[in-house]
Amino acid sequence: MDKLKKVLSGQDDGNADGNGILERANQASTLAWGTRMKGFIVCFFLGVFSSILGTCMLWIPGIGLAVFAVLYSVGNICALASTMFLIGPWRQLRTMCAKERAFATIIMLVCLALTLCAAFWWKNNGLALLFCVLQFLAFTWYGLSYIPFARDAVMKLFSICI
Q1: Quick one: angle between helices 125-144 and 64-87, nearest 10?
Q2: Across the chain, where does the E strand assignment appear?
Q3: What does the alpha-carbon distance between residue 113 and residue 77 come to, in Å, rounded to a whole number?
Q4: Alpha-carbon gap, residue 110 to 14, rounded angstroms
């Protein structure tokens, strides 16, 4: 906290330690491990709750699909953001863009955007539902990339089934 006060008051000696301003701000504002865990748990369960609530709203005639698309997308964003509490936002972005996760990340974010477009601009319920399913599959594939050999095991399982 003292380092943050020095940086904000202009008393810091500039870039003497070789780190950039973003890195120094990140170091100065780090959270305690307990606070990180609480933030992760709250954000993750808000995401799960939002997704479940969206699924319940799916059956409301007329507006159900649009509400589902929004709540499901918000739930996925919250679940994805929850891991930022554990490893920090910059490291999260770096791991999302790593070569083994980049494709799943891009597909997941594109499907998230297309879900909202299909629900609000195009007003196409079938497309919105399709993009939600694709969003789920991409998010699952993204999550499996963090477990060693999980993607290989899933691919082998599907190849045996087919």
Answers
A1: 20
A2: none
A3: 11
A4: 39
Please give the Cα distance from 129 to 29 (Å, whole number).
Answer: 40
The mean per-residue pLDDT over the stretch 149-157 comes to 93
Q: Which two tokens stand for residue 141?
A: 């594939």
Q: Per-residue pLDDT tens for 75-133?
A: 999 999 998 888 888 888 999 999 989 999 999 999 999 999 998 899 888 898 899 99
pLDDT for 44-75, tens place per residue?
999 999 999 998 888 888 888 889 989 999 99
Contact status, residue 64 vs residue 58, Cβ threshold 8 Å: yes
Grouping H, G, I as helix, E, B as strand and the rest as coil, residue 97 is coil
Joined tokens for residue 23: 């890195």
CA neighbor of 73 nearest in space, from 118, 123, 126, 121: 118
Q: Is the dihedral of CA 45, 46, 50, 51 positive or negative?
A: negative
pLDDT of 140 reads 92
The sign of the CA dihedral 30, 31, 33, 36 is negative
